[in-house]
Specification:
Length: about 325
């Protein structure tokens, strides 16, 4: 009996030490990110692969030069990226041909890929020019959140759309998000219907976020998606509810649009670098009072997802950092 009690005591001591170490690590990392200084600072240039000249890199506080920017994070997407980019560029070119006032750019952020992603991205720069397609190289892998943050901070659009490199959501669905943003902007600025075609309306000046949502497809997705992804999503929804509060049914859809004013507030404050940055975006939108519109989009499962059971610890780690950082006031907000 004494031996059994000794084992129990050792187990309790071990668990207590583990909890103490984990808690200390969370506090230390949250404190380390308190001023948002740990993010990657890539050189503020784009390279034109045709002329090999450096192109000045814009910043989110600069005035918008394009109507829309499409931000695509890519990590080892050599095989999926070409199809998604072909579809995207075809849509954008067709729209620009119909509407001469429509201007765009595609910003690809290579998040430390070890395959041919960089080569694929620069092939598209050569084909469509550096004014329409640009590439940011992060050097090593930092995570989807960091890649999107970097793309948002160095884009030129009045509207900024983040979308995945796999093409899971049809690019023309951006019009659904765009339409709702314009409707909310008119309401926010007390514009009437007659102002819908008013070219003086600067959509970039009104902070609004529009989230693509797959919530309407949940029942079908549960039946077709791999079991571990269903488990991840269900558990994740519960944790998200605790961390960021209710209101958004699908925080993780990789199809989100922001006005320049919203992106300026959100992405200068984002600290999470990987899968949970979407949750931090929701939290910050609520903190800043930025309206969030959730809109159903067409979405399909594309083979090659980077989400797997090993993503769970990282998700929980980031949510713990976010909860501690904001709720203790350790993470200060730049306004």
């Amino acid at each position: 009996m004494g031996f059994l009690w000794a084992i129990v005591e050792l187990f309790v001591v071990f668990v207590s030490i583990a909890i103490l170490v984990l808690g200390s690590a969370i506090v230390f990392e949250a404190y380390r990110r308190r001023h948002n200084h740990t993010h990657v600072e890539a050189p503020a240039i784009f390279e034109d692969p045709t002329s090999l000249k450096e192109v000045p890199c814009p910043y989110i506080f600069d005035p918008a030069e394009k109507y829309i920017s499409l931000i695509i994070p890519a990590f080892n997407e050599e095989h999926r990226l070409p199809g998604a980019l072909d579809e995207t560029m075809n849509y954008l070119q067709q729209r620009a041909a119909k509407d001469k006032s429509f201007s765009y750019e595609v910003v690809i952020i290579d998040d430390g890929s070890t395959d041919g992603t960089k080569r694929v991205a620069f092939d598209f720069v050569r084909k469509y020019t550096v004014d329409n397609v640009r590439v940011i190289l992060l050097g090593r892998n930092h995570g989807k959140g960091e890649a999107i943050r970097k793309g948002m901070l160095h884009s030129r659009g009045e509207l900024l759309l983040m979308l995945d490199a796999d093409g899971a959501t049809k690019v023309d669905d951006l019009e659904k998000l765009e339409k709702q943003i314009h409707a909310v902007a008119r309401k926010e600025l007390h514009f009437g219907d007659a102002a819908a075609s008013d070219s003086s309306l600067r959509i970039s000046d009104v902070p609004i976020a529009a989230f693509g949502s797959r919530a309407h497809m949940e029942e079908k997705a549960l039946a077709t998606r791999k079991w571990y992804r269903n488990f991840l999503m269900k558990g994740f929804h519960v944790v998200v509810l605790l961390a960021a509060g209710p209101g958004i049914r699908d925080t993780q859809c990789g199809f989100k649009m922001f006005t320049r004013a919203a992106a300026r507030k959100l992405f200068t404050n984002i600290r999470l670098k990987r899968w949970c940055f979407d949750v931090e975006v929701v939290y910050l939108c609520k903190l800043f009072g930025i309206p969030i519109i959730e809109i159903s989009v067409n979405w399909s499962e594309i083979p090659g997802s980077k989400v797997n059971p090993l993503s769970i610890p990282n998700m929980l780690w980031e949510l713990a950092l976010m909860s501690l950082g904001y709720r203790t006031g350790m993470w200060q907000i730049c306004t």
